[in-house]
Amino acid sequence: MTEALRDLLDGRWADLRRASLDLLAKLEPAGELSREDYRAWVFEQLRALADGGHPLIGFPERHGGRDDVGGSVVAFEVLGFGDLSLMVKAGVQWGLFGGAVQALGTDVHHDRYLPGIMSLELPGCFAMTETGHGSDVQNLGTTATYDVDAGEFVVHTPDAESRKDYIGNAARDGRLAVVFAQLVTGGERHGVHALVVPIRDADGSPAPGVTIEDCGPKAGLNGVDNGRLAFDHVRVPRENLLNRYGDVAPDGTYSSPIEGVGQRFFTMLGTLVRGRISVAGGAGSATKKALTVAIRYADRRRQFTRPDSGAEVVVLDYLAHQRRLLPALATTYALHFAQEELVSALHDITRERTSPADADERRQRELESRAAGLKAVATWHATATIQTCREACGGAGYLAENLISGLKADTDVFTTFEGDNTVLSQLVAKGLLTSYRDHVGDLDPWGMARFVADQAVGVVIERTAARAIIDRLVGGSSESLLDRGWQVRQFEDRERHVLEGLARRLRKATPETAFDVFNAAQDHVLHAARAHTDRVVLEAFVAALDRCDDERLALLCDLYALSTIEADRAWFLEHGRLTPQRAKSVTQAVNDLCARLRPHAVDLVDVFGIPESWVAARITG
Amino acid sequence: MTEALRDLLDGRWADLRRASLDLLAKLEPAGELSREDYRAWVFEQLRALADGGHPLIGFPERHGGRDDVGGSVVAFEVLGFGDLSLMVKAGVQWGLFGGAVQALGTDVHHDRYLPGIMSLELPGCFAMTETGHGSDVQNLGTTATYDVDAGEFVVHTPDAESRKDYIGNAARDGRLAVVFAQLVTGGERHGVHALVVPIRDADGSPAPGVTIEDCGPKAGLNGVDNGRLAFDHVRVPRENLLNRYGDVAPDGTYSSPIEGVGQRFFTMLGTLVRGRISVAGGAGSATKKALTVAIRYADRRRQFTRPDSGAEVVVLDYLAHQRRLLPALATTYALHFAQEELVSALHDITRERTSPADADERRQRELESRAAGLKAVATWHATATIQTCREACGGAGYLAENLISGLKADTDVFTTFEGDNTVLSQLVAKGLLTSYRDHVGDLDPWGMARFVADQAVGVVIERTAARAIIDRLVGGSSESLLDRGWQVRQFEDRERHVLEGLARRLRKATPETAFDVFNAAQDHVLHAARAHTDRVVLEAFVAALDRCDDERLALLCDLYALSTIEADRAWFLEHGRLTPQRAKSVTQAVNDLCARLRPHAVDLVDVFGIPESWVAARITG
Q1: Is the pLDDT of residue B92 over 90?
Q2: By the 8 A CB rule, do B171 and B210 touch?
Q3: Interval B525-564: pLDDT, tens
Q4: Span B300-315, average pLDDT
Q5: 8 Å CB contact of B416 and A397
Q6: What residue of B is the nearest CA neighbor of A319?
Q7: Which of A506, B257, B494, B521, CA to CA, is 20 to 30 A from A368?
Q8: Inter-chain residue contact B304 with A136, CB threshold 8 Å
C-alpha cells in the first residue's frame, strides 16, 4: 500500500524525481561553516549538480538540454530536501538568471550564454528588485538608455533607491547580471526591459562602473551571496538587450510584438512564473522535512506518566500534539497535489506555445494567478508548520543538529521573495474578478477597483482538476461532514460568496474613490484569494484520491477539508453556512480524524522519501 | 502627553528602569562574530553588567544587594532591548543559578556562593532539564545518594536520557552547577532536590567524573554556551545540598519543613517562578523592538502609486499593513501592563514571606498560575509578532542589519524554555478548576481530571487588577462595542463559560478513564487557559487606563479588546454571544481603530524608549 502511495506522490515526473533524489543523496550536508566558507561550499555543490546533469532538465534541446520545464521544477523541489542555500543558489543560477536569458532572449543570446550558464562557467544574477521597489517592479528606477552613436545601452542607477538589492549570486560569484531597467530610446520610455550586463571581470573584481556591496549576514540562506548592485553609466552593446519582447534597431527605433507598455511588461513577467512555482515546491519540501523530524520524534518521545498504568505517554498520543502536527501534515499532502497540478499546467502551456504572440492569454493569466495563490499559501503554510514543528520538539528543536531550526531560518524569506504573499494574494483576487481578461493594474492592486466598477462582474467558479469527478461530487446532497461532496460544496460556496461580496463592494468605486474603496476592502480581498486557493487545493486532492485507493489518503483529505473549514469557521457561522452546533461538530470531527490518523503518522512522513542522510536529526536517530 | 505615557509605561520601578536603560546604553551591539568569539563577547559584557551593578538588584542586602525582586525582573526586561544572548546569559547566572542558591539554599550557601555569583567569579549553571525529561521534571533520572560513611552525596547520571541538557553556561564558562536530582538516603527516595556540584576545575577542565558536551549551534542565542552534563558517581560534601526545603543529617536522616514529596517539590519549584516572569518580560522587550523597527519602516516605505494622485503610498496607510502591525502593538501594550501587575505581585508576595512555612499557599499558587499563563501568551505573541514584523519589512527584514531576523532567532526558544507553553497552559486551567487548592498533578496535567471529578467545582471569576474599577464597568449595561464594560463582560463571560464546560467534561472522569477524558478535552483546556489570561491582561490594561488620561491609550485598549474578540469570534458565534451581524461589526471596528491609531503609530513605539543604539536598523536610519 505504501508503495502505491509513494508512486502517487512521485506523480507525473516519477522517474526524474527519483533520479534527482539519487543525485541529492550523493551530496552531503555541510557542517558548521563560517559564512564565507559556507558560500564556497555551496558553489562547489553547485558544480556537483552541474556535473550530475541537474541544469540540463530545463534548458533547450538545441543546447544539450532536455527542454523539460515541469521536470526542472520537480528537480528544484527535490533540492528542497537538501541544503536550502544550495537550492536557492541553483534556482538563481539556472531558474532565474538562466531562465530569463532563455525566456526573454533570442537565439543569439541562447547561443552565447546558455552553455556557460548550464556548465556554471558563467555564474549570473537576476537583477530585478531594487531597494526602493520590490513588489512594484513596474516602477523600477534603473535606466537603460540607447546611445545611437555608439550603438550601446547606458545602464544607470540614478539614486540609492534604485540600487539592485538582495540579488543572489551578486556578492561573490556572479559574472553577469540580467538587469531589469526602464528602456529609453530616442528620448522615449518603453517600460521595463532586461539586458545582460557584465558585473565582474575575469579576475573577479567589479566591472568598471559597477559597485557591488554585500548584503551581509541574513536570517538564513547564508550560503547564498546576496548583494547590491549599482551602475554608473555602464555601457553594453545593443545586442545585450534580451529582445524577444522588445527590440531596438541600430538607429534607435523601438519595436515589439506586443503593444502597450503594461501588456508587454506583464507578458515578460509571465514567462518568469516558473520561479514562483518553484518556491512553492521548495517550501513544500522543507515542510515535509520538518514534519518528518517532528513526527518521528513525537512517536518516540515520552513525557508524563499515565495515572492508570504509570507508563510514560508517547507525546504523539496527546490530542494537543496531534492537533499541532496532523492537520499540518494533511495540508502538506494537499499542497503537494496542488503543486503537481500546477507544474503540469505550466509544462503543458509552455510546450504548446511556440511564439510570443501564440500564448493563450487567458490560460496564461490563470496559470500566473494560480501560481501566485499557491506560492502564498504554500510558503505561509511552511512558515507556520516549521514553527509548529520547532515547538513540538521543545528545546531539542532549537538545536542545529535537529535540522528544524535551519529549515525555519532558511525558509523564512519565502513568504516575501518571488513576490510578497500579501501582494500576490491581491493578484489572485484581481484575476478572479476580471476573469483574467487583461493586465489592468496587475501589480497595482487597486487598479482593479476601477476595472470592476466599470464591468458587470459575475463570479463563476471554474473547476480546475478532475472536473468530472468534482461535478459528480458536488451534485450530491449528503450533509455529512465526511461526505466529499459536502466538503467541496463548502469550499466552492465560500469562494463564490466572498467574491460576490467583494465585487459588490468594489463596484461602488468611482475613479476618485478607487483607492479608498479598495484599501478599505483589503482584508476582504485577501480572504477571497485564500478561499479560492483553498478550493483549488482541495480539488487537486480530490483528483489525486481518484488515482489511489488508500484509506489513509482519504482520511488526510477529510482532515485537510475539515481543518480548513474549522480554521475559518467564523466565516461559515457569520454567513449562516454552519449552525453553532455543526461548527462544534467540525471541531470534534477534526479531533476524531487526528486519532484515526495517528497510528499512520510515521508511515505518512516516511513515504515522502527524503534521503535519510538529509533528514538525520539527532533526536530521531 | 507622550511624557505621561512614558511615565505610565515605566511604572512602579521607573527609576530603576531608567537606570538600567542607561547601563544598557553604555554597551554596544556585537558585530558579526564566530560562535566562540560571540560567547567570549557575551561573557565580557556580563562583566560590564556586573561592574555596573546589575546583579545587585535581586540579591540580599546582607550581601551588598538591594533585595529588590521586582526590580531584578524589570532590569532583566530592559536587557531584552539589547543583545538577547547577554540577557539570557545574565538570566542563567544571576536569575536561575544565583536565584536557586538564594531561594533553595540557606545562610551557609549564601555566604559561600553569593558574593562570587554576583561578581561573576563563580559562573554557574541551573541543571534541571534532562534529555528525557523537560516538562516532567518530577521524574528526573539523575540521583543524589547519600553515603553516610563518607558524609557525601554521590551524584550520578544513570542513563543517556538522564543527562542534563540545554544547560546554559555549561559548555564554556560554568564552574558550578545547581543540579536537580532524586535525593536518596538510607535507601529511601525523597524526591527532587538541588545540590551544588563543581563541574570545572580552576583551569577550566571538567571536574573528575563530569562529562561536558557542547550543544553546538542553535537557531539563536549563540552567545550562550548551552551544554550537556553527565555525572559518573561524582561526590560532593553533604553541605552542598541546598537544604532550605529538605535536609539530610550526618547520619542520613531526612527532614523537611514540608510534608509530602509532591508538595515539597512544587514549593521548591514555586520559588523559581521569577524565571518564567522574566521570560515573559524579555519576550515583551523583544516584541517592542521588532515593532519599533517595523512601524518606523512602514511609516517611510512607499510602494505602488495612488491612481488619483500618482503619488507613492506609504505602506502603513494600507489597511492590510495596519492590520498586521497595529493589533499586535495594542496587545504588546496590554501585555506590558499585565507584566507589571505580575512583577508587583511577585515582589509583594516574596517580601511578605519570611519563612518557608509562611507562604500564603493560595496566593502563591495563583501567582504561579498567572506567571505560567502570561509567559505562554507573551512568548507566543512575541513569536507571532516578530514573524509578522519580518514579513512586513520584506526582504529587508531578512537581513541581519535590520535586527528583526536576530530577534526572531533568539526569541524562538522562549515558547518552550522555562516551561513549554502548552504544558504551562494546562497548569493555568488546572489552577482555575481547583481554585489553587493544592498541588495535585501540578505538572501531571490529567491529575486534575481525577481531582475535578471528586469535587463540586464552581467557577468564580476573581478580578485581579483594579477590582473597584472593573466592578463598576461590569455593572454597566451598554452594548456598544466600544464600551469598556461590554468588552470586559465579554472576556469574563467567555472565561466562565469555557471553564464551566470544561469542569463538566472532566467531572465525568473515573480513575480508569481520567487519562482519556482529559486527553480528549485537551484543546478545551488550552482554550480555557487562554480565555483566562486574556481576561487578566485586559483588566491590567483597564487599570492602567485609569492612571493615565491619554486618548491613544484608550484606542489601544479598544483595539486589544476587539481584536482579541475578533480572533476568537468563532467561539462567540458558536455560543450565541455574538450575532453574525455583530461579529462583522467587530471586524469593522478593528479596521476603524487601526485607521484612528495609524497617525500615532510611530509615537506609540518611540515611547517604549529603546536606546537608539540598540534599535538602529539600517532601513529606519
Answers
A1: yes
A2: no
A3: 999 999 999 999 999 999 999 999 999 999 999 999 999 9
A4: 90
A5: yes
A6: B519
A7: A506
A8: yes
Residues B298/B122, Cβ–Cβ less than 8 Å = no
* Structural contact between residues B281 and B74, judged by C-beta atoms closer than 8 angstroms: yes
Closest to A216 in 3D by CA, of B373, B400, B576: B400
CB atoms under 10 Å from CB of A44, counted, come to: 12
**Residues forming beta bridges with residue A206, ordered by sequence position:** A200
pLDDT, mean over chain A: 94
User: Cβ–Cβ of B304/A444 closer than 8 Å?
Assistant: yes
Mean confidence (pLDDT) of chain B = 94
Q: Report the run of H or E that residue B71 belongs to, with start and end.
A: helix B69-79
Q: Tell me how far apart the alpha carbons of residues A118 and A108 are, in angstroms, rounded to a whole number.
A: 16
**pLDDT tens digits, one per residue of A382-420:** 999 999 999 999 999 999 999 999 999 999 999 999 999
Question: Is residue A443's pLDDT more than 50?
Answer: no
Among A219, A306, A398, beta carbon nearest to B398: A219
- Chain A nearest-CA distance from B319, in A, is 6
With 0-12 CB in 10 A as exposed, 13-18 as middle and 19+ as buried, what is B254? middle
Classified as helix, coil or strand, A256 is coil
Closest Cβ opposite residue A34 in set B34, B573, B575: B34
A276-331, pLDDT tens digit by residue? 999 999 999 999 999 999 999 999 999 998 878 889 999 999 999 999 999 999 99
Q: Which of B399, B426, B575, B587 would best serve as a mutation to test chain A binding (most A beta carbons within 10 A)?
A: B399
CA–CA gap between residue A104 and residue A109 (Å, rounded): 9
What is residue B117's predicted lDDT score, i.e. its pLDDT?
98
Cell numbers standing for residue A460: 463563476
Please state whether the predicted TM-score (pTM) of the whole model is above 0.95. yes
Instruction: Report the DSSP pairing between strands B143-147 and B176-185.
Output: parallel
Q: What are the CA-CA distances from residue A571 to residues A563, A568, B22, B362, B581 (Å)?
A: 14, 6, 49, 42, 11
Task: Tell me the pLDDT band of B454, cut-offs 50, 70 and 90.
Answer: low
Of B166, B218, B303, which has the smallest distance from its Cβ to A405's Cβ?
B218
What count of residues does chain B have? 621
Q: How far is A337 from chain B (nearest CA, A)?
A: 27
Contacts of B206 (CB under 8 A, 6+ apart): B199, B200, B212
Number of other residues whose CB lies within 10 A of the CB of residue B7: 13
Record: contact B573-A580, CB cut-off 8 A: yes
- Taking the CA of residue A306 and the nearest CA in chain B, the distance in Å comes to 7
d(CA A558, CA B105): 56
Question: Is the Cβ–Cβ distance between B499 and B488 less than 8 Å?
Answer: no
Whether residues B412 and A405 touch (CB distance < 8 A) is answered with yes
Write out chain A residues lying below 8 Å of B406, CB-based: 219
The pLDDT, as a whole number, for residue A572 is 98
Predicted confidence band of residue A357 (pLDDT cuts 50, 70, 90): low
| A520: chain B residues, CB-CB within 8 Å | 319, 591
CB pairs A-B closer than 8 Å: 223
CB contact under 8 A, B520 and A416: no
What is the distance, to the nearest Å, from the Cα of residue B121 to the centroid of all Cα atoms in its chain?
Answer: 27
Q: Which residue from A304, A413, A514 is facing B398, i.e. has the nearest CB?
A: A413
Which chain B residues are within 8 Å of A382, Cβ to Cβ? none
Contact A443 B583 (CB under 8 A): no
The average pLDDT across B146-158 equals 98
The mean per-residue pLDDT over the stretch A470-487 comes to 94
What percent of chain B stands above pLDDT 70?
95
The alpha carbon of residue A604 is apart from the nearest alpha carbon of chain B, in Å, by 23
Report which of A533, A530, A547 is spatially closest to residue A466, judged by C-alpha positions.
A547
Task: Collect all residues of chain B within an 8 Å Cβ-Cβ radius of residue A323.
Answer: 522-523
Q: What value does the mean pLDDT take over residues B485-493?
A: 97
